[in-house]
């Protein structure tokens, strides 16, 4: 009789111990799982911003002059991060009246020199193209007047449907490139939308760049504001070069 009671007590003790161990194990698992989840969240919150920061600036924009690389026939995207950044730089230059800020959006000099067959393309770039571009930036800033500091940039409308591929031998060029005329910079003042034009964008290695801001036929004597208008405005003559 005593043996039976002893065995019964032993079994109850063992069963109770087993249950206790299961409870402890479950608690430890829950704690471990909670810590693991918290760790994963912490890692996500620190890794994602680092990745974004690292990839936000492509290496080619800081270490390689695109004009030193060969041209491609890739059609430029208006949704790429590089293009959006260039146009933001252009708008910043207009609103501040500082043309230097817009230089990343302007066609690279090294690309122009390798592209054109004219005499002394470097001089033409500096005196005619870049000189007119800077004057046009200042003219657009003056046009905005008191609204320059408060005008909100909306975006750019590029008539990609009218773009054309300029084949080598045309427009004094020895290399082909994409061209599109009369894009529109959209901005808001108060509750109203307005726009000004960009006379000409041309491509280099699958990226659009401004080559003429106010007018293709600028004399360089003064800056030109390209067809300012309420709303999106009208896409004018696209041209061929």
What does this structure look like?
The protein is 44% helix and 19% strand. By secondary structure, it is α+β, with helices and mostly antiparallel strands. It has 2 domains: 1-56; 67-230, no CATH class. The longest helix is centred in the first third of the chain and has 55 residues, at 2-56. It is globular and about 45 Å long.
Given the structure, what is the number of helices?
5
The string of secondary-structure elements, in order, is HHHHHEEEEEE
- Residue-averaged pLDDT: 80
Briefly note the structural class of the backbone.
Answer: alpha+beta
In helices, the fraction of residues equals 40-55%
Query: Oligomeric status of the shown chains?
Result: single chain
Distance between the termini: 111 Å
User: How many domains?
Assistant: 2
In total, the number of strands is 6
Radius of gyration computed on alpha carbons: 32 Å
Can you summarize the main beta sheet?
A: 6 strands, antiparallel
Based on Cα principal axes, name the global outline.
globular
């Amino acid at each position: 009789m005593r043996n039976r009671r002893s065995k019964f007590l032993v079994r109850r003790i063992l069963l109770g111990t087993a249950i206790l161990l299961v409870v402890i194990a479950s608690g430890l698992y829950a704690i471990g799982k909670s810590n693991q989840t918290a760790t994963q969240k912490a890692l996500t919150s620190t890794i994602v911003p680092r990745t974004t920061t690292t990839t936000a600036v492509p290496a080619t924009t800081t270490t390689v002059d695109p004009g030193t690389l060969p041209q491609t026939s890739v059609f430029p995207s208006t949704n790429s991060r590089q293009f959006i950044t260039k146009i933001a730089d252009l708008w910043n230059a207009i609103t501040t009246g500082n043309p230097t800020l817009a230089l990343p959006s302007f066609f690279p000099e090294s690309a122009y020199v390798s592209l054109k067959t004219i005499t002394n393309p470097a001089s033409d770039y500096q005196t005619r193209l870049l000189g007119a571009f800077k004057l046009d930036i200042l003219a657009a800033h003056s046009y905005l007047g008191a609204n320059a500091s408060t005008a909100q940039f909306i975006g750019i409308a590029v008539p990609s449907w009218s773009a054309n591929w300029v084949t080598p031998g045309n427009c004094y060029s020895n290399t082909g490139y994409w061209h599109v005329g009369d894009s529109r910079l959209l901005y808001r003042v108060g509750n109203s939308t307005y726009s000004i034009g960009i006379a000409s964008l041309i491509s280099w290695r699958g990226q659009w760049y401004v080559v003429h801001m106010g007018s293709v036929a600028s004399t360089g004597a003064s800056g030109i504001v390209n067809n300012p208008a309420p709303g999106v405005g009208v896409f004018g003559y696209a041209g061929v070069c």
